[in-house]
């Protein structure tokens, strides 16, 4: 029976809760695993959680032939249904290919025999090669910006208190956040800094750092879409759901360090919006590229409802409501 990928012990909360939930249990069959979920305001399983769990399930089946661990370098996932928080998630991994330096895996996450997520991930041994990358833009550093945690503390509302208590990452928006109201301009561009709220042990495997970046990025990926449409998280009747997730890892990730997200939304149409992000570390190294398409609907759209990873946020004071 395949052993689950080992997760570090993290005493600091709320990062410790995330590390524990990403630690899967062995399932009954070969290459099968079982996961649980963290509480969510939406009442549904958080999408970033199930993709990160699926990535770690796949990583547990990748062989180490003595030349070093094969690290995840790309992930492609499709969300099919909303997951139920109270039920365990079954992860079944299919070994598609093991080559001399690359391995590919297909992972299906299901509840009660019904698939909620399908994903393919690829892993590679560390190799030498040519180096080139885009430069990180010049933006204010995190020490100059206001933390989302500070904003939540000023709001006397159950949602703000929940987020302030459970957020495992500190987020600082360069252009200002869109939690309570839209941005000043309808521009689908966003920059933000992000760092784990707590600290992973120094010997934490690189695969875990990459899985944690996958976990947290789903919180902010569709924000440029909202900005481009003049919306905020409190826009009354907003229905938002991630449809698919693509991610590439270029260099080692360290979630103990500040990470800069450079985001944009090239297009929205048909109730869907596209979002992209380039993620740099504090020294300017490009560590990851991410792309998502999401369903974004407002009241009056021809087709209503979501049922998939939906987040509905109703607000009373938003100018867009």
Automatic annotation (TrEMBL):
Residues in Acyl-CoA thioesterase-like C-terminal domain copies: 163-296
Top-rank lineage group of the source organism: Bacteria
InterPro entries given in the database record: ACOT8-like_C (IPR049450), Acyl-CoA_hotdog (IPR042171), Acyl_CoA_thio (IPR003703), HotDog_dom_sf (IPR029069), TesB_ACOT8-like_N (IPR049449)
EC number: 3.1.2.-
SUPFAM superfamilies registered for this protein in UniProt: Thioesterase/thiol ester dehydrase-isomerase (SSF54637)
Keyword Magnesium: no
The name this protein goes by in its record: Acyl-CoA thioesterase 2
Residues in Acyl-CoA thioesterase-like N-terminal HotDog domain copies: 43-123
Keywords linked to the UniProt accession: Hydrolase
UniProt-listed Pfam families: 4HBT_3, 4HBT_3C
PANTHER family to which the protein is assigned, alphabetical: ACYL-COA THIOESTERASE, ACYL-COENZYME A THIOESTERASE 8
Naturally occurring in which organism (per UniProt): Actinomyces slackii
GO terms for MF: fatty acyl-CoA hydrolase activity
Alphabetical GO biological process terms: acyl-CoA metabolic process; fatty acid catabolic process
Family membership noted in the UniProt record: Belongs to the C/M/P thioester hydrolase family.
Enzyme superclass (EC): hydrolase
Stretch list, region Disordered: 299-321
């Amino acid at each position: 029976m395949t052993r689950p990928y080992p997760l570090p012990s993290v005493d600091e909360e709320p990062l410790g809760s995330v590390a524990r939930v990403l630690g899967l249990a062995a399932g009954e069959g070969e290459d099968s695993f079982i996961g649980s979920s963290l509480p969510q305001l939406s009442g549904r399983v958080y999408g970033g959680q199930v993709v990160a769990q699926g990535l770690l399930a796949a990583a547990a089946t990748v062989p180490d032939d003595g030349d070093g661990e094969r690290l995840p370098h790309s992930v492609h996932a499709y969300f099919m249904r909303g997951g139920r928080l109270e039920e365990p998630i079954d992860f079944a991994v299919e070994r598609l290919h093991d080559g001399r330096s690359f391995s590919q895996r297909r992972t299906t996450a299901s509840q009660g025999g019904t698939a909620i997520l399908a994903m393919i991930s690829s892993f590679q041994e560390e190799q030498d090669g040519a180096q080139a990358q885009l430069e990180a833009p010049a933006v204010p550093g995190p020490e100059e910006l206001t933390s989302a945690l500070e904003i939540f503390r000023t709001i006397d509302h159950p949602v703000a208190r929940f987020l302030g208590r459970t957020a495992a990452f500190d987020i600082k928006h360069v252009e200002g956040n869109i939690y309570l109201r839209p941005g000043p301009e309808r521009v689908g561009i966003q920059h933000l800094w992000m760092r784990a709220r707590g600290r992973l042990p120094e010997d934490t495997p690189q695969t875990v750092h990459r899985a944690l970046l996958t976990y947290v990025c789903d919180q902010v990926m569709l924000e440029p879409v909202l900005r481009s449409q003049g919306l905020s998280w409190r826009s009354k009747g907003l229905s938002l759901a991630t449809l698919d997730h693509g991610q590439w890892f270029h260099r080692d990730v360290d979630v103990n360090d500040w990470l800069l997200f450079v985001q944009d939304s090239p297009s929205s149409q048909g109730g869907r919006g596209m979002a992209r992000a380039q993620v740099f570390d504090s020294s300017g190294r490009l560590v990851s590229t991410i792309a998502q398409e999401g369903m974004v609907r407002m009241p009056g759209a021809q087709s209503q409802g979501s049922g998939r990873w939906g987040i509905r946020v109703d607000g009373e004071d938003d100018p867009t409501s």
